[in-house]
Amino acid sequence: MAKPERESEIRIVVAGESGTGKSSLICSATTEAILWDPEPCVDPVILPQELFNFGCPLTIIDTSSKVEDASSVVEELKRADCIVLTFACDRLETLDRLSTHWLPELRRRLQVNVPVMVVGWKMDLMDENQQQSLQQMVSQSNSSEIRGAFKSSVFQEFREPWIFQEATRLVLFPIGALYDVETRSLKSKVAEALKRMFILCDRDKDGALSDEELNDFEVRCSFEPADDYGPVKRLLEERMSGAVNGRGITLAGFLTLHAICIERGTTCMTWLALRRFGYNNAIEIPRFEPAAHI
After folding, report:
1. Cα–Cα dist 86/154, whole Å
2. What is the 3-state secondary structure (H, E, C) of the chain?
3. Does 217 lie in the same domain as 110?
4. Are residues 37 and 163 in the same domain?
5. For the chain, how long is the longest CA-to-CA vector?
6. Same-domain status, 115 and 250
7. Residues 40, 156: one domain?
8. What is the CATH number of the domain that holds 269?
9. Per residue in 78-126, pLDDT tens?
10. Are residues 103 and 220 in the same domain?
11. What is the pTM of this model?
């Protein structure tokens, strides 16, 4: 698998109201057990880079809920690569505070523009009204604020380091460079890059990718090739007309396939394809100028 273009540490800061499980989340991720009464604020935790096989170390920062520690919390939020906001599922006011305080504080006052992931503590106590409130907040944010909330699967009970793996993915495979959530469309640079990939993979130049050509594309990107592309084609046909023809998946279908993956939160697929075809994080192919000889 192509490695992300990052070697420095990733800092994930956990914040939220008092009693919403911030410290419990961190402790459960590092001890593989849920601690219901941990220390009020745990020390920074460094997870080894081998844990998720992303090639970079991960530092998890807890934050205090004490008023006198507010300035230090602000500094940590400004240094974060990703922020995990917590709320308690049995206290609706902590969910309301995400949209009335935490998100406006991050975006407008602090000008923090990093991925945000929302996690509910005591998920089994969440009632239907709270679930609707949560989904409404996510929908209204247009994912420009909550970038880890494409699907409700993000909001799960704390268990093992899974949540921090997802948070790391948000940093390494960001959606913002790929997709415009408001217009529900691929960014122009990404569309052009995918078009180039399509042309390179369309060996017989018939304007469609056959099953064999799709297989070659997946192998080149180090994906697990599908045994049957029928389900993918049916999905594309349901999404739009002209995505598939008798020769295979068309350019429009290829672009739509990546858009669907991104909408479902699988941004790593498109990022890994871009990197396999020579693109950097700016969705550009670096130009290497020859050294000047004097």
Report:
1. 12
2. CCCCCCCCCEEEEEEECCCCCHHHHHHHHHHCCCCCCCCCCCCCEEECCCCCCCCCCEEEECCCCCHHHHHHHHHHHHHCCEEEEEEECCCHHHHHHHHHHHHHHHHHHCCCCCCEEEEEECHHHCCHHHHHHHHHHHHHHCCCCCCCCCCHHHCCCCCCCHHHHHHHHHHHCCCCCCEECCCCEECHHHHHHHHHHHHHHCCCCCCEECHHHHHHHHHHCCCCCCCCCHHHHHHHHHHCCCCEECCEEEHHHHHHHHHHHHHCCCHHHHHHHHHHCCCCCCCCCCCCCCCCCC
3. no
4. yes
5. 73
6. no
7. yes
8. 1.10.238.10
9. 999 999 998 887 788 888 898 899 988 998 888 888 888 888 876 655 6
10. no
11. 0.76
The answer to whether residues 71 and 89 belong to one domain is: yes
Domain that holds residue 266: 179-276
Give the pLDDT confidence score for residue 121 in this predicted structure. Answer: 77
Q: Specify the number of domains making up the chain.
A: 2
For residue 290, CA distances in Å to 282, 287, 293 come to: 22, 10, 9
Whether residue 1 lies inside any domain: the answer is no
Whether residue 24 sits in one domain with residue 157: yes
Give the CB-side neighbour count of residue 200, counting CA atoms within 13 A: 14
> What is the number of other CB atoms lying within 10 angstroms of the CB of residue 41?
16
